[in-house]
Amino acid sequence: MPRFNQASPEDRFKQVALIRAIGAGFASGNPSTLQEAVRQWLLSLLQDPSEKVRRYAMNALPKLGAGRAEERQLLELLQKSDIDRERKFLGQALNKIGGSATLDVIRNQGGRLSHLTEQRAKANLARQQKPSSIRLDATLPHIPSLRIHLRCRNGLESILTREIKDTTHKFRILDIRPGLLTLAPTSQFNLRELYSLRIFSTASFFLGTLPTTGERTEPLARLIASSENLQLCQALTDGPVRYRLEFVAQGHQRSAILQSVQKVYALCPDLLNDSRQAPWAIEVHPGDRGDWVELRPRLTPDPRFPYRQQDVPASSHPPLAAAMARLAGPFPHDTVWDPFCGSGLELIERARLGGVQTVLGTDLSPVAIEAAQTNWRAAHISGVRAHFLQRDFRDFMKLPGCHPGQISLLITNPPLGKRVPIPNLRGLLQELLTLASLALCPGGRMVWVNPVKIKPSDPTLVQDFQQTVDLGGFACRLELLRKR
Ligand SMILES: C[S@@+](CC[C@H](N)C(=O)[O-])C[C@H]1O[C@@H](n2cnc3c(N)ncnc32)[C@H](O)[C@@H]1O
Fold first, then answer.
1. Is the shortest distance between the CB of 343 and ligand 1 below 6 Å?
2. Are residues 192 and 251 both part of a single domain?
3. Of 10, 82, 229, 419, whose CB has the highest number of CB atoms within 10 Å?
């Protein structure tokens, strides 16, 4: 920075890229004691005689999480500047950090700043005042045509269907496709009731279909600004409605997004586009006869799995763990063992369903055992004895109190050899099946992910269910075996 300051105007002009690099290096995500000095330096560059230097500085400033002082300086520069390009870049910087001062300028003087800047400044203010705000307990407005899309990992459709039928009477299943169930509500409901279902990955409300040919910006904006969408958003949001627009599996589509959100704002200024921490996503999904437009609550962390305090690198996808637990079904005084428990998701999901006497988690890794213990405590499950032990699964019979026929459910997502190579995965899984035969009581179940299509050699361990499931980019078999 000092060397840049001392350089001749020509050298500064040639080295403007340094400004961008420093902005990125000291971005607000990278805490540093020098951040304040960098901010002051960038502010001083806004006074530079070279338009190019000023432009690079105004681009870099928002990266540092700039605030009111920076906003004021950008607005002052806007008043002075009569260079079109500079005004355009000032507008872009104000899109990111503009707030009440920017809105005042727009209100009093209009003209120089766009409707996009106005929309973003309103969104910035709303975000700062109330970061995330979906109302889980608010009853949804009655919209007769309302359709809910539940997306799940491919292969989990039948278990999700069973979960819906067994646990709630509020929804009717209209359609089942790979990875997608369409539901209609049968009575009033709130998001908390929808999120009592644990096997779906995402839930969204279907807003409509885009035409397959011709201009799509206007139809997309009309769906987003529709009264159904506005009713849903307003009923379910605490405070101003902010949304992010995303084209799923269709690339970035920056210009389509910019055009659409400006049209939406013109049609309905109550809906504010905001790419940062917006509580809602409007998603455009490839559909069969035209793309589907959906409204999705962005609930992160997922309110269904608040117990997930710690993770291991190969943690199960929580809805998969929930699906495995449901697949296991009930058993009187269930005694459950996960030989490869990792962070404990399968055991916790099974225990949450009730009827469990004991859970036992074993894992080679001390980090995994610590994670499982932490998560178990955070799940607040009472009346279940829980033991988490750092052991090789083969040591099961050596564990105090463990004997043949003691386990009524073996539930596990074993090492799959994808992230951590396993020298003899088949051999390890063969040993697991042999041990399962010994450990399971008559009628006991084994629910597991079988990555190599291995079969038990014990004829009394019989397959009851099998389904190929997407484990996030690769397919494995989910199986239920029963000990006769
Ligand atoms: C796919 S992860 C399990 C993830 C777990 N279901 C969860 O949700 O976090 C497999 C686990 O097996 C453990 N593991 C690998 N070999 C083992 C062995 N021989 N005995 C016990 N655990 C083992 C690993 O440390 C890892 O935590």
1. yes
2. yes
3. 229
